[in-house]
Amino acid sequence: MNMAGKPSSPPWLTLAREIYTLSQAGLAYSKNDFDLERYQRLQEISAEIMAGQSALEKEAILESFSIQAGYPTPKVDVRGAVIRDGKILLVQEITDGRWSLPGGWADLGESPQEMVEREVLEESGMQVKARKVIAVYDACNFQPLEFWHAYKIIFLCDILGGEPTPSYETPDVRFFDPADLPPLSQNRTNQRILDEIFAHFADPDRPTAFD
Q1: Which pTM does this prediction carry?
Q2: Which of 77, 119, 163, 199 is most deeply packed, by most CB within 10 A?
């Protein structure tokens, strides 16, 4: 835990991320073949550290590195908070069977508002209008920790229409009472996020939370 009481990254993950960031920046900007070779080796070392501390294979990690071209920046995860009759909309994740706010990794070519409204519709069948940014979180403070540094943006959304409808990514979609929540997919949605959502719903003037 850090001083704020939030989960902190283990030293090996912090170092692996830093080595990856240095190597990725070097590969993006260096024009010297010898330097490029060294930066490539740093990337391999980062992948070896990650593979040694997880169930992932080094080759799979390097393949993931290869599609992260250019200067390394955090990824963005957008989530939509939709409340009806005091209950929160959650979708079941096909990957782990647990539940989260509808949303996911941001795609290129869309504004944040467009992204979250589309994600909510695709994953839950609910047509919504993003009304307010509730919070911007550093996803490195969430468990289980992700290898990639990411920011998580939570939008409070108004319902325009639709009914809860499963998708190929989300086999079940329901509204849940905050006192009777299902098992949460913790790296996607946790209790801290839900508490902040209901606090904003109760107090429209509550300022945006951020790390």
Answers
A1: 0.73
A2: 119
The residue-averaged pLDDT of 97-104 equals 96
DSSP 88-152: EEEEE-TTTS-EE-SEEEPPTTS-HHHHHHHHHHHHH-EEEEEEEEEEEEEGGGSSSPPSS-EEE
What is the rounded distance in angstroms from the CA atom of residue 115 to the CA atom of residue 58? 32
Q: Which residue type, as a one-letter code, is found at position 155?
A: F
The rounded distance, in Å, linking the Cα atoms of 68 and 20 is 11
d(CA 199, CA 88): 13
Asked if residues 43 and 62 have their Cβ atoms less than 8 Å apart, the reply is yes
Q: Report strand pairing: 150-162 vs 126-138.
A: antiparallel
Tell me the C-alpha distance between 142 and 45, whole Å: 25
Read off the pLDDT of each residue in 157-162 and give the average, rounded to a whole number.
Answer: 97
Burial (CB count within 10 angstroms: exposed 0-12, middle 13-18, buried 19+), residue 166 = middle
